[in-house]
């Protein structure tokens, strides 16, 4: 298999990327290439121009700033996987990363690439939804920020314009001692998840749930925050029945059907995986207060 | 022929200057332009792992990279693993001794993947080995011999390090 013919551009700076995006028609940005390259090989995409981001300086970093984690768009999934900062301050992402593809694909795959490809079951997309992340994009008009809830415009279509490039992601951190879990069901390790669930729980000194976040991936065209369950949990004490009962609401969510699984199976998985994720997150809550 | 670029790339310690079409895959460049056919192509869309090479020391699928992207970088293929023409790498010896291959198609990808893995994790558990090779498909061995070979290689490499 061979990619179709295209013109190749390898800018060195963010300004050059924006300049190219502003002048070229039908251009595709090449980040880690773990989704775009298979699509080129199979000729699912036929771009006239490929803009390779791999030689641009300054787009790869992980830092903590003002209670949030800031991650550059070209940060490799591998760098997130082995980051002590991510493991200690954003353990949900640490757990999710290990379920992305394989070692060889994580070595190349990037944060920004995952966000923009916007696969419905992509782990990093679910993590961004779970943490109410903000995406920063740069275009000819300058920089702008997009709340993650507004980021998916449609199936695999982010709300960024043709002349814009994602430069970073800001993830507000939960306080130390919170509980987290990322669980997914796939037919084989490393396959696309049929459904995934990301849970975060914060509890007060009496063991009552102060805040909860529940995100389902793979069920709809973009990750779904299950507000009904989140709200039902706040103020409750995590007793044996609590999570199972609350998660029954997930069976009523709209669900996709495809060759892997019918909608009813995804709804079933949504309820089961949500309960498991919340139970695991609760078990990890430490230092309530 | 479409747009071409001149690239300089170091493969298995040898510097190569070449003119490549910009849409040329790194795997095809290694196989057809440099004649290094040890890197195998199975699925050509990043699923089977047979084309795994080390790119600046990190395992990567060479069917998901363009040859132009290798400009200025270092690549190790299966041909560069052995220390010399008459001596195999301890990982290769462990594969031979543990029936780690039958037809040999997946072997280049298994070896390159495991070289990086055993460097990062010199004393792995069986489960860690299985996860490490989860992105490499083998249709002959049932993986049993490959896992045994990887664990055996870890022991050999540690013994060699102790001297």
Report what the structure shows.
The complex is a heterodimer of chains A (289) and B (163). Chain A is built from eleven helices and 14 strands. Chain A is 30% helix and 25% strand. Chain A has three domains: 7-52, Uridine Diphospho-n-acetylenolpyruvylglucosamine Reductase, domain 2, CATH 3.30.43.10; 62-172, Uridine Diphospho-n-acetylenolpyruvylglucosamine Reductase, domain 3 (2-Layer Sandwich), CATH 3.30.465.10; 179-284, Enolase-like, domain 1, CATH 3.30.390. In chain A, the strands form four sheets. Chain A has a five-stranded antiparallel beta sheet with strand order 4-5-10-6-7. Chain A has helices at residues 14-23, 36-41, 77-81, 84-89, 91-97, 103-106, 111-117, 123-130, 227-233, 242-247, 263-284, and strands at 7-9, 27-30, 49-52, 62-65, 68-72, 134-139, 142-147, 152-154, 157-158, 165-172, 179-185, 195-203, 209-217, 224-225. Chain B is 34% helix and 17% strand. Chain B has a five-stranded mixed beta sheet, with helices on both faces. Chain B has two domains: 4-80, Ubiquitin-like (UB roll) (Roll); 90-162, [2Fe-2S]-binding domain (DNA polymerase, domain 1). In chain B, helix 2 (90-97) crosses helix 5 (144-162). Chain B has five helices and five strands; from the N terminus they run ββαβββαααα. Chain A binds chain B through residues 1-8, 10, 33-34, 37-38, 40-42, 50, 52, 54, 78, 101-105, 107-108, 188-190, and chain B through 2-3, 5, 22-25, 28, 44-46, 49, 52, 55, 58-61, 63-66, 68-69, 113, 116-117, 131-132, 134-135.
Count of helix runs of chain B: 5
The residue fraction in helices of chain B comes out at 25-40%
CATH class of the largest domain in chain B: Alpha Beta
Structural class of chain A: alpha+beta
Regarding quaternary structure, how should these chains be classified? heterodimer
Largest interface: A-B, 30 and 31 residues
Runs of chain B in which pLDDT lies below 50 for 5 or more consecutive residues are none
Shape of chain A: globular
Strand-residue fraction of chain A? 15-25%
Query: For the CA atoms, what is the radius of gyration of chain B?
Result: 16 Å
| Low-confidence regions of chain A | none
Q: Characterize the biggest β-sheet of chain B.
A: 5 strands, mixed
Rg of chain A over CA atoms, rounded to whole Å, is 19 Å
Question: Looking at the structure, what is the overall shape of chain B?
Answer: globular
Mean pLDDT of chain B: 97
Number of DSSP strands of chain A?
14
As for the number of domains of chain A, it is 3
* CATH architecture type of the largest domain in chain A: 2-Layer Sandwich
| Series of H and E elements of chain B | EEHEEEHHHH
CATH architecture descriptor name of the largest domain in chain B: Roll
- Major sheet strand order of chain A: 4-5-10-6-7
């Amino acid at each position: 298999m061979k990619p179709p013919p295209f013109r190749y551009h390898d800018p060195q700076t963010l300004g050059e990327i924006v300049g190219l995006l502003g002048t070229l028609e039908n251009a595709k940005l090449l980040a880690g290439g773990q989704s775009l390259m298979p699509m080129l090989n199979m000729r699912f995409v036929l771009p006239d121009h490929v803009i390779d981001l791999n030689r641009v300086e300054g787009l790869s970093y992980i830092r903590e700033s003002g209670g949030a984690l800031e991650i550059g768009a070209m940060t490799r999934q591998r760098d997130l996987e082995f980051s002590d900062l991510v493991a200690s301050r954003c353990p949900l992402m640490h757990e999710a990363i290990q379920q992305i593809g394989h070692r060889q694909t994580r070595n190349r795959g990037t944060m920004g690439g995952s966000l923009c490809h916007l696969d419905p079951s992509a782990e990093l997309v679910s993590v961004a939804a779970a943490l109410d992340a903000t995406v920063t994009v740069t275009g000819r008009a300058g920089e702008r920020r997009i709340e993650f809830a507004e980021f998916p415009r449609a199936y695999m279509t982010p709300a960024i314009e043709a002349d814009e490039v994602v430069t970073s992601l800001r993830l507000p951190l939960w306080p130390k001692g919170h509980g987290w879990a990322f669980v997914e069901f796939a037919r084989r390790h490393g396959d696309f998840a049929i459904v995934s669930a990301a849970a975060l729980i914060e509890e007060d000194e009496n063991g009552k749930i102060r805040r909860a976040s529940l995100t389902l991936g793979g069920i709809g065209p973009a990750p779904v925050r299950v507000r009904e369950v989140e709200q039902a949990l706040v103020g409750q004490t995590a007793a044996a029945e609590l999570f199972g009962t609350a998660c029954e609401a997930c069976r009523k969510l709209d669900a996709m059907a495809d060759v892997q699984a019918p909608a009813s199976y995804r709804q079933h998985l949504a309820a089961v995986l949500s309960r498991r994720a919340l139970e695991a997150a609760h078990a990890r809550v430490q230092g309530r207060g | 022929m479409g747009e071409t670029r001149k690239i300089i790339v170091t493969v298995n310690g040898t510097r190569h200057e070449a003119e490549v079409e910009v849409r040329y895959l790194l795997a095809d460049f290694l196989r057809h332009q440099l004649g290094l056919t040890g890197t195998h192509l199975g699925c050509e869309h990043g699923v089977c792992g047979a084309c795994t090479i080390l790119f600046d020391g990190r395992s990567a699928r060479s069917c998901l990279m363009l040859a132009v992207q290798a400009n200025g970088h270092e690549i190790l293929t299966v041909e560069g693993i052995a220390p010399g023409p008459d001596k195999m790498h301890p990982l290769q010896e462990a594969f031979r001794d543990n029936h780690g291959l039958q037809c040999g198609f997946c072997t280049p990808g298994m070896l390159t993947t495991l070289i990086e893995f055993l460097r990062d994790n010199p004393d792995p558990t069986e489960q860690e080995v299985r996860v490490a090779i989860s992105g490499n498909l083998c249709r002959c061995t049932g993986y049993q011999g490959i896992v045994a070979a990887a664990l055996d290689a870890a022991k050999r490499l540690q013994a060699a390090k102790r001297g």
